[in-house]
Amino acid sequence: MADAISRPLIWVLKGLRAGDTAQAMELALQVGGRVVGKQLSFNKAHVIPNWLLGARVSHLTPTAHSLLRPPWPDLVVATGKRTAPVSLWIKQQSGARARIVQLGRPRMALGQFDLVVTTPQYGLPPGSNIIQVPVPFAKPKAVSEINLLPYQTLWAQLPRPWIVGVLGGHKFPQRLTIVEMAGFGHTLDQMASQRGGSVILLDSPRSPLGAIDIAAKAITTPCWHCQHGSGSNPYQSALALGDAFVVTSDSVSMVTEMLLTNKPTTVFRLPVSSLVPRWSAGSGLGAMLARAGVLHPPRDVDGLMLRLQADGYLLDSSQINAIAPSHDAVVTRIRSLLASPSAS
């Protein structure tokens, strides 16, 4: 029992999406203990809805199934639809001893999990085992002084503060057109001009070809820009060295990484298609069906950005005092779960 509290065995179920795995791994590391990653792969049965599949591993390949053997963990941390049935199956195999923490939205009955850690974009209903955090578990990667030095030298002639702008791309229902590309550059130009600084302009793998050039043309203040794939990627170095950030609203992961630097972060909101309804399962019939795992509100990234701005995490272009979101309450809650008698 004491070892399960002080050094719990934690399995992180690793799915197909690197971003999901990174979130689960980061949470596990923050909880602390013996963290073991289990790389899962899936067969065609993964398309079966989770509420029909239940606590099973029939949608795993034989190779993945073979990784799930005793000793069973004290804690399972996983993200995404495909891992949720596996998490519950492990709990069964452990004699209900293992604690199960699912990130995001499991797309099955929420009451089956010890804890569901979610963010506002998923619109899940409130519940005693549901905890909502401002942003996902993600953080900037550590960059060594040796790797930072070339960019410190390269940008040394740019006046401070350095305003780092990062362009995303089309991600339905949000749209990035020529109008938004130019508007993004204009926003960066205004910020740098008001603060007597300069712009470091980057794009991402999703950015349309030529988008960064369109944005750069709208910038009259000192500016350095680099197209993704044209050399080493300066993104992590820019997070470490930049003084403030501006990013398009399509990327939750980039917004999260920027916010967790505890530096001023502004989101350039992209227009949203009216073809996608926006609703939340906060109450009523929608909440009941969402708790049962049979109905899920559409992912609302723009709504998440609005919530972050309303809560004071995202700033407008004139603000400079940053507030960093915290995940401490989640880590404390999980450690309490591990310490409870039913976890022994």
The helix/strand order is HEHEHHEHEEEHEHEHEHEHEHHH
Computed CA radius of gyration, to the nearest angstrom: 22 Å
Total beta-strand segments? 11
Contiguous helical run count: 13
Strand order of the largest sheet: 2-1-3-4-5-6
- Percent helix range: 25-40%
Instruction: Using the alpha-carbon principal axes, give the shape.
Output: globular
Structural summary, described in words:
It is built from 13 helices and eleven strands. The chain has helices at residues 2-6, 18-31, 50-53, 62-66, 84-93, 145-154, 178-195, 211-217, 235-241, 252-259, 284-292, 301-310, 328-339; strands at residues 9-14, 34-39, 75-79, 99-103, 115-118, 130-132, 162-166, 198-202, 223-226, 244-248, 265-268. It has a six-stranded parallel beta sheet, sandwiched between helices. Strands 9-8-7-10-11 form a five-stranded parallel beta sheet, sandwiched between helices. Helix 8 links the parallel strand 8 (198-202) and strand 9. Helix 6 crosses helix 9 (235-241) and helix 7 crosses helix 8 (211-217). The longest helix is centred in the middle third of the chain and has 18 residues, at 178-195.
